């Protein structure tokens, strides 16, 4: 009789059918590829909703250790869908539109594991804002990044006016926002806007993901949580959060394995426990 119930609670992840993006997991790396190359992967409302769905899938997928976002073709994402913006009839509709993008990118930013934007070409407007919602950014040498909204009589509305200054400082952020200019991958690297530049953004991102994945999964999640929760707090409060999470990390099996492996001069075998 025991065998009848053996697989009763087996976890089966249901992955929705996506029209505007693809989702695949290989050796712990989830790859999310925006697939609207004919529109330079412009972020339509349908694509934004699919990004929210894929964030939920990633939350539930026990196989995933690191997530990479990239775009098909010559763009990462060249911004919001201008046809949809032109159709916004009043300030209330426009506000709801901005809130949709902000909510989706907040869900991506809140993923409890490392996320990397592999910027393979244009990352403009909403495309750069998606990259800013990721923890790390890797760009190809041909990549162009910018927030050109003021040239359309708008402002960045999916988090750009908030995440960019937090990342690179107020003066540098306002330079990019006021001019709307496109910056090269090399300038983006010097600004601190991207972490790495390589010939192939996706390959470079995968190498970075593999380095990250050598470390303990729970420790990675807690380190991210400590950084994120500490932002905006005074130092004393933030240090308390760090101490709490340090204590939590010390109680994991991975911590014991990490210390043992170090003392035994071998690679650690972390299990996320």
From TrEMBL:
Keywords: Lyase. Pfam families: ECH_1. Transmembrane segments: none annotated. It comes from the Bacteria. InterPro entries: ClpP/crotonase-like_dom_sf, Enoyl-CoA_hyd/isom_CS, Enoyl-CoA_hydra/iso, Enoyl-CoA_hydra_C. Belongs to the enoyl-CoA hydratase/isomerase family. This is Enoyl-CoA hydratase/isomerase family protein.
